[in-house]
Design brief:
Blueprint: H1 5-8, H2 11-14, H3 22-25, H4 28-31, H5 58-68, E1 75-78, H6 80-92, E2 99-102, H7 109-116, E3 120-123, H8 134-143, E4 152-156, H9 171-181, H10 192-211, E5 215-219, E6 241-246, E7 259-262, H11 265-274, H12 282-293, H13 295-317, E8 322-325, E9 332-337, H14 340-349, E10 355-356, E11 364-368, H15 372-387
Parallel strand pairs: 2-3, 2-4, 4-5, 5-6
Antiparallel strand pairs: 1-7, 6-7, 8-9, 9-11, 10-11
Helix pairs in contact: 5-12, 6-7, 8-10, 13-15
Length: 388
């Protein structure tokens, strides 16, 4: 099936004439001029934050383009990933008419944004081991009439709250990177079993993206904590792919509320056309650019979190009331716990705040990986619960 962007975009968005702000008509931040008499934006002439921020976040996009090895035209900068999620509904989904596919258990904001935008949700559950059920997704698509095809397919990978990566971009790249990291040769031959898995993964990707004439959104909020290659590297292969990432996790800027969408220039142009003119404030833009340039600090903190993740996982497994600690490629651990509600309440009452995910997955608790001190506090509190 050949993907046609115009056919799936809401007609009012395709024909939308975006608001022309003063800072888009005159590019203050790209002008390079120091002495200007700025009387075009009805700003207060005095103050440290008296000027409107760069509406296109140009320095951030320039740095991201360099780091991700893509074009600036393939990057949208938003007020958290939540803005990108909402814009995807606004751009592609007619309220009261269109449908999207979710694969629960997964990030809850996809469903909330669907409800806000009056969009029907079709659910294809992950398998018992939290893998993507591609055959069920394809069957659901094939059973929908041509004029009722779902517009969006949401895939969180690594997934929240399960921690695993249900969809992988390129197993060959992952294998080479892992072997190189651990002292192996880049051109080592593949084991037959892995080669079969690699080919099967690629067939599934081609089948999924080829059969779905809507937008497949891969949310990579936790990408920095996995060795898997990013789907950003597959943008040229799949024109209906949108990848989401965020500054909230590995970069430690949850309070700044900045997220990114990566896609074809044509899709990014629709984001820019639909967004509010000044969607990311000046303070957040400065904080993000500073953080993007601190690559060594980021990598050091990621390694620390992964080390603490392994430390916490081993200790959680030692408690007899914790039946399973699921493998994680994120900055959290999901555990299946006997009397999960009781354990959660005990930890909460003793000042240790985790997340009870039993409403999504029976008897499960999610532990964010904190500092080593915080991990030890969790372990001590669980030890005290065991002795009660």
């Amino acid at each position: 099936m050949e993907f046609n962007l115009e056919h799936i975009v809401r007609k009012n968005i395709w024909n939308l004439q975006p608001y022309s702000s003063a800072r888009s008509e005159f590019d203050l931040y790209g002008s390079g001029k120091k002495e200007l008499t700025l009387l075009d934006a009805n700003e207060n002439p005095k103050g440290d934050l008296n000027r409107y921020p760069d509406p296109m976040q140009s320095p951030i996009k320039q740095e991201l383009a360099k780091q991700k090895e893509i074009s600036k035209d393939q990057i949208f900068v938003g007020n958290g990933s939540d803005e990108a999620i909402d814009l995807l509904y606004r751009i592609f989904c007619e309220p009261g008419k269109d449908k999207v596919i979710l694969c629960p258990p997964t990030y809850g904001m996809y469903a909330v944004s669907a409800a806000i935008n009056d969009v029907e949700v079709l659910k294809i559950d992950l398998t018992e081991r939290f893998e993507l059920n591609i055959d069920a997704i394809l069957e659901k698509i094939s059973n929908c009439a041509e004029n009722e095809q779902p517009k969006l397919l949401w895939i969180c990978s690594p997934n929240n709250p399960t921690g695993n990566a249900p969809l992988k971009a390129d197993l060959k790249h992952d294998w080479q990177a892992q072997n190189y990291t651990h002292g192996g040769m880049m051109d080592m031959p593949f084991a037959p079993a892995f080669e079969a898995e690699m080919l099967d993964n690629q067939r599934n990707l081609d089948k999924l993206f080829g059969a779905f004439n809507g937008i497949i959104v891969v949310d990579e909020a936790y990408q920095d904590f996995t060795e898997n290659t990013s789907f950003i590297n597959r943008l040229e292969d799949y024109p209906n792919l949108v990848v989401l990432q965020t500054m909230s996790k590995a970069h430690g800027l949850a309070g700044a509320r900045v997220g990114f969408a990566f896609a074809s220039p044509e899709i990014i142009e629709l984001f820019n056309r639909t967004k509010p003119p000044y969607n990311v404030n000046e303070l957040s833009q400065k904080a993000v650019l500073t953080a993007l340039l601190q690559t060594e600090k980021k990598e050091r903190e990621i390694k620390e979190i992964i080390t603490n993740r392994d430390f916490l996982a081993e200790h959680l497994k030692s408690f007899d009331f914790i039946n399973e600690v699921y493998p994680s490629e994120a900055n959290f651990l999901l555990a299946q716990v006997e009397n999960a509600n009781e354990v959660y309440n005990y930890l909460r009452d003793n000042g240790v705040i985790i997340r009870n995910r039993s409403s999504q997955i029976k008897d499960t608790l999610r532990f964010t990986v904190g500092t080593r001190k915080e991990c030890k506090e969790v372990i001590q509190a669980l030890s005290a619960f065991k002795t009660n």
